[in-house]
Amino acid sequence: MGIVSRIKQFLFVSLRLQKYRWLSDCKKVNGHPNCFQPLLLKGKGEITFGDNVQIGVIASPNFYSHYTYIEARFKSSAVKIGNNVAINNGFTLTAFGNIQIGNDVLIGSNCTLVDTDAHQINPEERHAFPTSADISIGDNVFLGSNVTILKGVAIGRNAVIGMGSIVTTNIPENVVAAGNPARVIRNL
Predict the structure, then answer these.
(1) Which residues have a Cβ under 8 Å from the Cβ of 126 and sit 6 or more positions away?
(2) What torsion, rounded to 10 degrees, do the Cα atoms 185, 146, 8, 26 define?
(3) What distance in Å separates the CA atoms of residue 38 and residue 67, rounded to the nearest whole number?
(4) Does residue 119 have an active-site annotation?
(5) H-run or E-run covering 24
(6) What is the mean pLDDT of residues 35-63?
(7) What is the model's pLDDT at position 94?
(8) Which residues, 6+ apart, have CB-to-CB distance to 176 below 8 Å?
(9) Residue 188 CB: number of other CB atoms within 10 A?
(10) What is the distance between the alpha carbons of residues 89 and 142, in angstroms, rounded to a whole number?
(11) Are 39 and 70 spatial neighbours (Cβ–Cβ below 8 Å)?
(12) Residue ranges per structural domain of the chain
């Protein structure tokens, strides 16, 4: 690597990685992901990374402009990410309750997992504490780019979720699902 490449790496990657480490405030983090893109860890809950978790993909869109955001909001919140998980650029995960991602999962760019509506739907209750429901992603699942997984969803092992899908209900194992809302379109 030449001197110009080293300077670019330091200015545009290394400094950003360090900045987001400093901005992270989650105190209960277990495991050490391999970060190629900045990772911001927030909240009072617990975040656990398995072995060989990759954050960010150099040869993918938004590498220099986005970051990964993982939040376990409350003391009782927990995020568990399994072994050999690859998370592409611009991933967002917000857990008010529990979110679990299995082993060998591939997550495309700009995906979002959120286990709460963040605010009540009823206007009179809008400022009340929101409800949440756990999310579970099975082993060997592939989420295409721009997929959103909403509260209470379980995705079975080996499932593929098509690009741009919004998943509002459970998806069985060994299927391809896509759409808004996502529905099963074929078996594997």
Answers:
(1) 119, 120
(2) -120
(3) 5
(4) yes
(5) none
(6) 96
(7) 98
(8) 159, 160, 162, 184, 185, 186, 187, 188
(9) 9
(10) 15
(11) yes
(12) 3-187
Q: Does position 1 have pLDDT exceeding 80, yes or no?
A: no
pLDDT class of 81 with cuts at 50, 70, 90:
very high
Condensed to tens digits (0 to 9), the pLDDT of residues 168-182 reads 999 999 999 999 999
Among candidate residues 32, 66, 119, 127, the one labeled active-site is 119
Q: Are strands 182-187 and 175-179 parallel, antiparallel or unpaired?
A: antiparallel
Task: Tell how far CA 6 is from the center of its chain.
Answer: 30
The C-alpha atoms of residue 44 and residue 25 are separated, in whole angstroms, by: 8
Q: Which two tokens stand for residue 144?
A: 């295409």
C-alpha separations of 38 from 69, 85, 112 in Å:
9, 16, 16
Rounded to 5, what percent of the chain is helix, strand, coil? 15, 35, 50
Per-residue model confidence as pLDDT tens digits over 97-147: 999 999 999 999 999 999 998 888 888 888 888 889 999 999 999 999 999
What is the tally of helices (H) and strands (E) in the chain?
Answer: 2, 20
- pLDDT, residue 70, reads 98
Single-letter amino acid, residue 171: I
State residue 58 phi and psi, 5-degree precision. -60, -45
The gap from C-alpha 74 to its chain's centroid, in whole angstroms, comes to 17
Domain boundaries 3-187, CATH class = mainly beta
* H helix intervals, the chain: 3-9, 15-23
